[in-house]
Write a structure and sequence with these properties.
The protein has helices spanning 61-69, 76-79, 83-92, 96-99, 113-120, 133-142, 179-186, 208-217, 222-228, 232-238, 244-251, 260-271, 281-290; strands at 18-26, 29-37, 43-47, 50-51, 103-107, 124-129, 147-151, 164-170, 190-201, 293-299, 309-316. It is α/β, with parallel strands linked by helices. It folds into 3 domains: 1-52, no CATH class; 54-202 and 278-316, Vaccinia Virus protein VP39 (Rossmann fold); 206-271, no CATH class. The strands form 2 sheets. Strands 7-6-5-8-9-11-10 form a 7-stranded mixed sheet, sandwiched between helices. Strands 1-2-3-4 form a 4-stranded antiparallel sheet. Helix 7 (179-186) links the parallel strand 8 (164-170) and strand 9.
Length: 317
């Protein structure tokens, strides 16, 4: 943890300031230590450079497993590509000049895929995740001067209110117990005139059979699903067969990315999470409107390998 992060943090329980105690540093970063609340005396550990505001990964254990297995798959810096950078751009509508010099909240950082992009665009990024993917994210990008990684719950964020210039949550909110409540939990931490960009699964015929399969797959052991989801790699070629391929894809939907490990990752990601809600764009639009956002924009663009999606952005009034 970088010492400068302390100024941004408060106790997620009572909102009081935190005090750093018993620190052990490695270079300029705090590797181990304790954050103590000045109000309610709660204690939060710093372990392996990451402040920890939760004790477990609760309902997101599949993501803890997923990002440790696929830590490098979608990282542009590890694959010499710009795929994630392009995806970040069209899912948020932002360009480098919108991020440069801004304080950005990544609500659901995962392995650091999009925080990598925002930090390379010269924003200062605070990446939060409930899963142990935070350890992977730190290994990938946590040593950068403009990146901070935090283990915390999106429903109980440890930040000062109206603190961030922009926030985004890409593919995360619909994996919480309540998508709308998760959306509204982020809003108070955004400054007025700040923008919030989200990507949320959309309702559609594509998930009719996958939802049936999920009644089984979500009950199977994670390691079992890890191997079973690898079927997406050869199925890609079957899905290319005229008529038969489309029927097979409808009956057993799998990711269709050209890259084999992307197919494996996204198929595992689809069939294993405990929660996977789908919404309509008018629903999401209403969330933005009810929270007082203006300039609300909808970005919906089908990409090869993608399923239904709602990408929307608004400016907090």
């Amino acid at each position: 943890m970088k010492p400068s992060l302390i100024e941004m943090l408060v106790c997620p329980g009572c909102g009081s300031a935190l005090e750093l105690k018993e620190q052990f540093s490695e270079g300029s970063d705090i590797k181990e230590g304790i954050l103590s609340c000045r109000g309610c005396s709660s204690i939060f550990p710093i372990r392996n450079f990451i402040p920890r505001f939760v004790e477990t990964d609760k309902y997101v254990d599949t993501f803890s497993f997923e990002w440790n297995k696929f830590h490098d798959v979608q990282m542009d810096i590890l694959n010499n590509t710009d795929a994630s950078e392009n995806t970040f751009g069209w899912k948020t509508g932002w360009k480098p000049e919108d991020i440069r010099g801004r304080l950005i909240l990544d609500a659901g950082v995962g392995a650091g895929r999009f925080a990598d992009v925002a930090s390379r665009w010269d924003g200062e990024v605070i990446g939060v995740d409930l899963s142990y993917a935070v350890d992977v994210a730190f290994k990938n990008i946590g040593k950068r001067k403009n990146v901070h990684i935090i283990h915390a719950d999106i429903f109980h964020l440890p930040f000062k209110k109206e603190y961030f210039d922009h926030a985004y949550s890409i593919g995360v909110l619909h994996h919480t117990p309540d998508t709308e409540k998760a959306f509204k939990a982020v809003v108070p931490y955004l400054k007025k005139s700040g923008e919030f960009a989200v990507f949320i699964y959309a309702h559609g015929h594509y998930h009719y059979f996958s939802d049936i399969w999920r009644k089984i797959t979500t009950k199977l052991p994670i390691k079992c699903m890890y191997y079973l989801s690898s079927v997406a790699m050869p199925l890609y070629y079957i899905h290319k067969i005229p008529f038969f391929g489309k029927a097979a894809q409808f009956l057993l939907p799998t990711a269709n990315w050209p890259k084999r490990r992307w197919r494996w990752l996204d198929t595992f990601d689809w069939y294993t999470p405990k929660y996977q809600w789908k919404h309509t764009w008018p629903e999401v639009f209403k969330w933005f409107r009810d929270e007082g956002f203006s300039g609300i924009e909808l970005f919906q663009e089908d990409k090869e390998g993608s399923l239904g999606q709602i990408c929307m952005k608004g400016r907090k009034s």
